[in-house]
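Researcher: Let's run the pair from yesterday's discussion. Sequence first, then tokens, for each.
Model: Starting with the first of the pair.
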Amino acid sequence: MPWTQNYSALAGSIGFTSLAVAVPILYLFWALAVKKMTGHIAGVTTLILTILDVVIVYKMPVSMAISASILGVFNGLFPIAWIVFSAVFLYNLVVEAGQFDVIKSSIASLSDDRRLQTLLIAFSFGAFLEGAAGFGAPVAIAGAILIGLGFEPLYAAGLCLIADTAPVAFGGIGSPIIAAGSVTGISANVISQAVGRQLPFLSILVPMYLIIVLAGWKKTVEVLPAVLIAGGSFAITQFFSSNYLGAYLPDIISSLVSLVCTAAFLKVWKPKTIWRFPHEKDTKSGTAVKYTGAQILKAWTPFIILTIFVGIWGVPAFKDFVAKDLRWFINIKHWPGLDGLIYKAAPIVPKPTLYPANYEWDFFSAAGTAILLAAIISSFILGLKPSKTIKVFGATFKQLLYPIIMMGSVLGIAYLANYSGMSFTLGLLFASTGKIFPFLSPILGWLGVFLTGSDTSSNALFGKLQMTTASQLGLNPVLAVSANSSGGVMGKMISPQSLAVAAAGTNQVGKESSLFRFTFKHSLGFVVVVGIIILLQAYVFPGMLPHVTLALQ
């Protein structure tokens, strides 16, 4: 029997209802920050609590709540966990082949300074991985590289989580922007232009902030030229690529430009002193092994192959070819126990509208498959026997088992929040704030990413609501939609999914709560900065962003 969402189920009040349905979110904060639960336990228990909450508050049928949760779990496993697994598998193959030492040496040869290594790896290389794969791959791989160079695991993971902010909006070949366009009807290129006129301000700030967190202000000033080169080249390229090339390539182009410019600059400029951690006695790595150009090229080959494959997989024509000609995908058009049974209601839609539920996994055209194929080809180039590759595959699955459980449970929560109306209730609470809404708009995106672990999911969740609210308030709808994405990226560093991936990639499974406490204050500070930028663009510099007028549907 069909069921209709009711966003003010308690006493007809959005406020009371929001307070009630926020309990699972508050519990998740408490579980990670106070109780220090491991990520997978916190995720699973929060999912169970969310099911109970929406059944009690909204009177949602238990069968529908469970079905929505299972649909979310499936989406958490494929394609998201599939991407993360494939990326870590590729990295583990490089380590198994003994090539990781060559990669470390090639980066360390540019500088022994820990500050500059952070710029090159956490910021520039991490941004490249975000653009190529997204969904946690940059934190897992870049964090592991830093640890291999001698960084403490907590610092390595934390720094990579902070660095993985500026590129997130265009991560995964622009998937967050594409998602925002699909749910709002606004052209993805227009949203790309708007985000490209917000995030470059932070792209300059993030590298400097990273070094301040790592070494303090005085030590940051010592490497300020390199910081400005890394951040400035990234920000300028991000602006031009997002405004003139679309949403697909800003991260990849910007990160490569940043990496090349910073590396070239370090060939002609060195800091007066080499900064290393207090526990490191030597200020120089004079004993570092020198490798030939051919050896360095071989070690980096897996990532070159990764770039080529993900680039091909990200081309729309290739996706169309797979979908229309190969038809290699799993498609459940009518998700059992959910499709055709739930109605969205006003004010989200003018009149009750069926909420479709389906599951589709284009497993061949998925980014995770591209990474997996790159990993398999790389295993032959690296000289690994098939038996060794299979062994590494099994070890990777064992390594990521708990994080995968957490990813599935978090996406279960996200989908349940959507189908129950929980996300819309919370969204409507933000929408009732009137003139201050532009400041809170990115916070809504931040909350969405915290809940789902994905800027793509957050845009899909709140994009339409942001557009509708902005139009009702007489604001540029592009401003609110882009704010959802720009603010959302700041939630990436505290989302349970990101924490799980960071912990797994840096061998800190069970320490997600420590990472949460490390990154939370930074995340909060950054989203406030984004809120101020959006306020200024709303009321002081409205001409900064492209403007569209849309009829509400």
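Model: Moving on to the second of the pair.
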Amino acid sequence: MNTPESAPRPPRARLARTLLRVLVLLPWLLILLGGGYALVRFVPDEPVTHADPVEHFKYGSTGGERESGFPYWIWQALPTVCAEHLPGPGYRSLGFIFEDGRDLPVGVSKRRHLGIDRVFLNCAACHTGLVRDTPEAPPRLIVGMPAHRFDIRAFQRFFFECAAGPSFSREFIVPEIERLSGGLGLVDRYLVYPVAIALMRERLLMLRGRFAFVFDQPPWGPGRVDTFNAAKVLFNFPVAQLPTYERLGASDFPSIWNQRKRMQRDDGERMELHWDGNNTHTEERNKSAAFGTGTTPPTIDLAAIARVEAWLLDLAPPAWPLPIDTTLAARGGALYARYCADCHGASGSDFAGAKVGHVTPIAQIATDPARLDSYTRDLALNQATLYAGYPHRFQHFRKTRGYANMPLDGIWLRAPYLHNGSVPTLRDLLEPSGARPRCFVRGNTLIDAVRVGFASAADLALCDATTGTPGNMAERFLFDARLPGNGNAGHEGPAYGTDLPAADKDALVEYLKTF
């Protein structure tokens, strides 16, 4: 017989008790599920990797996406949303190179970080170019050469102006992302991308204010960057209040071949690196360059950068692709040994020379001083604080008083010439500065097979014909050597071969094709 205590509860009472237990546990269950989703969605930090070293160089991460990366779908949407701020259709109009089958240009990497795919620049953005051997030939991609068509200032301006406009909002960007991606989930549509758009806009507007001084400078044009004034922003220098001569530092992207040979000279001394020779350690030079790809000391991907460093040690430039007059080149070789080898190396593969990798004082070389003046002792002292507390703290940046003598490997791919890219061809560089083109077009991919450089439409009357105002000409840039920081004087006189007869200059140029 059942007692009152042991009598079964009515079904309705059992249901109510079960529901009560569920209600008590439900918040904890939701928290557990939400935490699990957040753990899976937002914690992974995974770059897209590439086994092939060339592909890794072109598309691999340096870590910059962590701090500076743009959400992938916002990157893809902005050329349509803010088309009015681009010089032409899409990112190609900024000089980016797109390979068939790739959704991102060369020099842009992708990393899964904070729950979304994020993209930003890597080393290849500034060190990969396109070349055509003949007018009919298709352009071919060459890694390690200067990215002579990439306009990094126009790249900055696009994002800054887009962020400052009314279109940089979820009302415009999210629908474009929906169209491109084929649809977003509820979390992405109503939470992730609205928050990402707001944060990205806030950051871009902050950077727009801090980099405003850049747009008071003469236009850089493609293939050039003001490296160390940007570094001053990193250290919170009041750049707009600095002396005028410090605020002009635009110079060409360099080539990056044969890094092992650049690590030290034959006499055991280290070569002085950067245009002004302000560091002698490639390791620091590379980590410093990585700041241009958006990295910071806590976010830099050292393992990924080490892969690139190791590959670059012995990467060599391609050979000149057109016929060479061997008799003329042999004559030029003797002239080169007399006038050039001491500063620039015995050949394109032999960097031996008493002054190779050493700084020539500005009073002697007499080229435009703007890049040299922009790098100051105060900046060098600040750079010594970078990576403080890390084994690789910077220790070797210093102020110099001139420009470093560079080896000339692959010189035919490094036009225009001088540190600021102010002379279109090697043959022009062998002329006194008064006879060098004042204005020429930058950005062509066609080799100048005679004068060596890129086809440039150089003409002493070109500036006057355009009233001296640089601008776009058939999607190429008109460089004006009369503007501040763009001077094409220097590297001239009897010691530099500019007094030689024309036939000797032609022979010298022919020999330099073998580099």
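Researcher: Give me one sentence on the second I can quote.
Model: The radius of gyration is 28 Å.
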